[in-house]
Each structure stands twice: as C-alpha cells, then as structure tokens.
Amino acid sequence: MAMPMTPTQTSSLLRDLEHRPRKNLGQNFLVDANIVEKSLTLGQVSPDDQIVEIGPGLGTLTESLLEKGANVWAVEFDATLAAHLREKLQPKYPDALKLLEGDAIEFPRANFNEPNHFKVVANLPYAISTPWLDAMLQYPLASRMVLMLQLEAADRFAAKPGTKQFGAISIFIQSVYDIESGHRVPAACFHPRPEVESFLFNICLKPTPFLFPTQTKKLIRECFQQRRKQIGALLKKKLADGGEKWIRSLSAEGLDHRARPEQIPVTAWQRLEVNTPPPDQLN
Question: Most buried pick, 122, 133, 179, 265, via CB within 10 A?
C-alpha cells in the first residue's frame, strides 16, 4: 500500500508545488497510514471495483485504491493538485485512473456513468459534504460510501429522531442507506491539522432504498427550518388537506398534530405525500 507522506514531506511537496493549502476548500491532507487502510477496509475495496473519489488532493488515498486494483473516478477542483495527480499517477495507471478537473457539486460522481455498481471512498471536503451527499441521493446509487467527514456532520447524518441533530438530511440519507460502524479520526492525522475532529462515515445501500420526490424533500426541509413549531401548524397552509390524513397516521408512532418535526421518525416521513394547496393559500 502507498504510504502517506509525513507532515514534513507533505509540507515539502506543497512548497515544491508552490501551493498553500486552501482552508475554504478543506485542504487538509491525510498523513496517517492506518486511516488510509481503515478507509479501504470499511469500503471493502476489491480489484476491479469502480470507485468514485472526491477531492483526491495529493493522491495518497487515490494511489492506495489504485494499488488495490480498483478503477478510480476522481474529481479535483484545485488546478495545481489536479496537475500534480496527472503527472504523478496518470502515467502509472493510464487506464485505471479517470481524473476530472472540476467541481464535485457539478460532477458528484466524477463523470462515472457506467451501468455497473460503484462505491465512493473519499476524504470529502467538509464545506460541501451536505450538498454533495444530497446530490448523490438519486439514481444511480453507490452501493457503499466511506466518507471522511467533520465529526459534527457525521453526527447529523446519523442522528436519531428526538435529538437536536436530527434534520432533513438525516431523513434523506437514512431512507437510502444503512449506517454501519465507522471510525473516529484525530486532527493529528492531517496536515495542516483541522480545527475540528473527523469521522470515517460508513454507509451501505439498503435492499430497498426510498428516494423522496423533489417536492416532498422541499416540504420536509421547510418543516425543519421551523423545527420548534408543531407539525399540524406547519402543514396547515402547505398541503391541501392540511396534512390531516398523514398526521392521523402518526398515531402509530404515538404522535399527533402537536409533534415537532424532529420527533417524527424516518419511516413516518416516507409516508408523507405532497399535494397542491388550494388556490387561496398559494400566496
């Protein structure tokens, strides 16, 4: 396995590239071999796997994936780092590495568009974790994702109903993926050291994933923007029937119209159907 560079070696390479890590892009480079190996293990990476990687940076994880015999579809936003990867890795893996220079929000699958299964193994830039994950919650779906995230984001994505962290993105992710055991990652595993703790977030596609229609997702987000309000009041002007039928169905969870959005379980949100409000309530 390709050994990650030490912090000193990483600093030296960055100087050679005349590149200063950009905080706004979350450029904290992994310098711990155990965490790289943990990512591969959690991802169950095998030869001929199709792997999407977001923000490959200096290529430590990328090279380890390639050494495993995987085909890697990577998207890198930073032009200097993309040029470095083309020079360092493309000649060694001309067929296995497909490198795209671009924005991961615009190209969430790094231009992977084949019909076969794929996985995601990535040290995800923290600033884009929520919008990127949201963009991935549509077909084709990754069979497994192992994502280096800010610990706070991982807690939010895995949050259970009744907690302050539980929100719309928790519902959308947990409707598609089962959350499996991950791994906490100290700040010392990166250069430069981030100001937050990190976590390897490990999720596997459900046997029957549930994808919310666009309008339902919009409504759920609106509900959580006023999460302290009662669900009956929130839906009164948003749905033609005020959501009465759906609210009655909450009795199966021991809830009623007084429930707050964060109290309602994922399976109940999946039963919510959006219909058009009457004309006098559209404005």
Answer: 122
> What letter would DSSP give residue 163?
S
> What residue ranges of the chain have pLDDT lower than 70?
1-8, 10-12, 14, 17-27, 276-283
Residues 6+ positions from 263 with CB-CB distance below 8 Å = 161, 162, 255
**Does the domain spanning 214-281 belong to CATH 1.10.8?**
yes
pLDDT at 64: 95
∠124-172-242 over CA atoms, to 5°?
145
The confidence score (pLDDT) of residue 28 equals: 82
Q: Report the alpha-carbon distance of residue 138 to residue 143 in Å, rounded.
A: 12
The backbone region for 46, taken as left when phi is positive above 0, alpha when psi lies in -120 to 50, beta otherwise, is: beta
* Every domain range in the chain assigned CATH 1.10.8: 214-281
| The pLDDT of residue 34 | 92
Q: What angle do CA 215, 217, 220 make, to 5 degrees?
A: 110
Q: Judge contact between 76 and 100, C-beta under 8 A.
A: yes
What tokens appear for 162 in the block?
A: 């009744």
What integer pLDDT is reported at residue 6 of this predicted model? 65
As a whole number of angstroms, the distance between CA 263 and CA 30 comes to 38
Residue 210: which region, alpha, beta or left (left: phi > 0; alpha: psi -120 to 50)? beta
Closest-CA residue to 146 (of 262, 64, 269, 48): 64
Q: Could you tell me the fold of the domain covering 7-205? A: Rossmann fold (3.40.50)
For residue 179, the number of C-alpha atoms closer than 13 Å in the C-beta half-sphere is: 19
Report the DSSP pairing between strands 177-185 and 198-205. antiparallel
Q: What pLDDT does 89 receive? A: 95
Helices (H), 33-136: 33-42, 60-67, 79-88, 129-136
